[in-house]
Amino acid sequence: MTPPIESGLREALSGQYDLEREIGRGGMGVVYLARDVRLDRLVAIKVLPTDVSANPDLHERFLREARTAARLSHPTIVPIYRADEIAGRAFFVMAYVDGMSLGDRIRDAGPVAPAAAAQWLGEVALALGYAHSHGVVHRDVKPENILIDSGTGRAMVADFGIARVAEASRLTSTGQVLGSVHFMSPEQVTNEPLDGRSDLYSLGAVAFFALSGTLPFPSDAAAAVLVAHVTTPAPALASVAPNVPRALAAIVDRCLRKDPAQRYQTGEELATALQSANVEALRAGEPDGDSVILADGDAQRLWKRAAELQADAVGRGALSGDLPTSAVPLLPRRLAADGYKLRDAKAAAVEAGISEQYVALALSEIMPSPVGAVRIPAATRVALLQQKSPTLLVGGPMVLEREITVDGEVPADAFELLVDTIQRSIGEMGHVSTLGRSLVWSAEGRSRQLHVNVIPRNGRTTIRLTERLTPIAGGLFGGIVGGVGGGLGAPSAALALSAFHSAPLAVGVVGGVVASAYLLARTIFVGVSKRRAQGMEQLAALLASQVEDAVHS
Q1: In whole angstroms, what separates CA 103 from the centre of its chain?
Q2: Catalytically active residues, by annotation
Q3: Rounded to an integer, what distance in angstroms lies between the CA atom of residue 44 and that of residue 147?
Q4: CA nearest 176: which of 142, 210, 152?
Q5: What is the pLDDT of residues 470-514, one digit of tens each?
Q6: pTM here?
Q7: 351: three-class secondary structure by DSSP
Q8: d(CA 237, CA 232)
Q9: How far, in Å, CA of 91 to CA of 24, rounded?
C-alpha cells in the first residue's frame, strides 16, 4: 500500500505541482512523483525531513548546495530544476527517471552481468568526473542514488544536491549513517578533506556489490563497517565473484584501495579503463617485468599517462624541458599477435621525448605489482626507524618516522623530480626549501603534518620522513566521541531515566555510549596510523630508487 502524502504538503505545492504518489523514501527525505502544472511534465520532488528543515544551518546549506548542483549539465546526471522552500519545508525538483535504482535492480534480480555493469559504472564514472571538474564532490555515491532509465538503459546519478547536508548531519542521524556506511570512503570516516577520489572509492564499493551481490564489508554493525573501511583491505572481487573477467575485477579492486593516490585519479580515467575492461591488463611474464606483454590498449594508456605526468610537471615548473611529442613510434617493435613487450614500450616512450622517470611513475599507477611495484635498490642500505611507542590513550603512535640511506650523494638537479614524486604521492603541493645541499619538503595543513628531508652527505644520501598524527587524532576523537557520544548520550540517558527512574542508571548509560564512541575512534586511529606508516615506507622506497638512479646515471 502506498503511504499517504504528507499532510499539508499537497496544499503547500498546489498550483505549482500536483503530487501523485510517493516513489521513494530514505534517511534524507521522501521522494514524490508529481506533475509540473505550468510545463505539464512529470518531475520528482524530494522533500527534506522536518529536522533538517528546522535546522537553520542545514536548511541554508541544502539550498546552497542544491543550487550549485543545479548548474551541472551532463547526460548521466539527473538534472535539478529547482531548489526552494515552501511553508518552512526545503525541497528540490528534479527530472523524473522512469526506471529503478541500481540497488533495487540488484535486490530484485541479483548480481549484474559484467557487460551491463561495466557500461553503467562507466556512465556513472563520466558523470562524477564531470562534476569533479566543476568542483562538486557527490559524497554519497551508493546504489540507491544510481537510477537505470528503462527507456534508454542509461545509468544516471541523482542526489548531488544534498550530499553535504547528509554528511553534516550523519553523526546525529543514525538512519543516515546506516544508509550509506557500506559505501563510505576511508577519508569520510576519518573526517579528512575530500576530493573526487573519495567518490571513486564509493563507486568501487557499488561495483563490488553490483557484480557479486555482496558488500565489501558485509557486517550489520555500522561501527564495524566504518572501522573496516579504514583498517581492513577489501577482499579481492575475484575471491567472491570468480566469474567476473579479470580486467574488470582488477579495476574494482583498484578503486577500493585505502590510499587515494593508488586509485584512479579521475572519473574519466576510470571510465576509460572500464571501456577496455575486456582486455587483460597484464599477462604473466619474466621476473624482471620487461618481458611482460602489453595489449594495445594498455600500451596506449601507459604512453598517455606518462606524457600527461611529464607535461604537468613542465607546466607547473617542476621540470624543465620540452613537452613530449604526440606520436610514439612503436610499430616496428610490435609482436605479430600478442601486443608489445614492456621493454619496447618503455623504449618507444623515451624516443618520443618522455623521461624514463615519468614512464616508471605511469607504470606504477596503471599497472600494479608485480610489474609496477617499487623495489628497494640492491645497493641501498635500509634503516627503517621504529615508530614511536603507541600512546595509551589513542592506541597508536602520535609520531611516525622512516629513514632510508642510499650509497652516493644525490645531485641537486634531481631535486625537481623528487619533489614532484612527493607531491603526487601525498596529494599536496607542500613547501619546498633547501638547506645547504639538502632538500626539505613539508606540509603543515589540517590533514597532514609531514616533513621529508633528503640529505646528501659523506658519500651517502639519507631520506628521512616524519609525520605527526595530532590533527587526525584530534579530528577523530573530537568528532566521533563528541558527535556520537554527545548526540546519542543525552537521548539515551533521558530514555533510561524515564523508563527506570534511576539517575545512576542514566549516568551509566551515558558513560557506556561515550565509551563505545571512544573505542570506535581509537580503533579507527590505529588503522589510520598503520596505513600512514605503510604509505611512508612506500614513498621512502620510491624516493630511494629515484635517488639511486640519479646517483648512477
Answers
A1: 20
A2: 140
A3: 13
A4: 142
A5: 777 666 666 555 554 455 445 554 555 455 555 565 555 555 656
A6: 0.57
A7: helix
A8: 14
A9: 14
Q: Which residues does residue 466 pair with via DSSP β-bridges, in sequence order?
A: 401, 451
From residue 200, give the alpha-carbon distance in Å to each of 139, 161, 214, 534: 10, 18, 18, 22
Find cell 498550483 and name the residue.
15
Q: For residue 279, what pLDDT is reported?
A: 42
User: How far is Cα 156 from Cα 147, in angstroms, rounded to an integer?
Assistant: 5
User: Which of the listed ranges 53-57, 321-325, 404-408, 485-489 does the model predict with the highest average pLDDT?
Assistant: 404-408
Q: What are phi and psi of 80, to 5 degrees?
A: -100, 125
For residue 28, count other CB atoms closer than 10 A to its CB: 25
* Separation CA 275–CA 119 (nearest Å): 7
Q: Match 521522501 to its residue by C-alpha cell.
A: 30
Residues 6+ apart with CB under 8 A from 112: 102, 105, 106, 120, 210, 211
Q: Which amino acid is at 380?
A: T
> Mind giving me the DSSP string for 184-220?
--HHHHTT----HHHHHHHHHHHHHHHHHSS-SS--S
DSSP state of 477: I
Residue with cell 623504449: 347
pLDDT in tens, 13-45: 888 898 888 887 765 678 889 999 988 899 998
Give me 297's grid cell.
Answer: 590498449
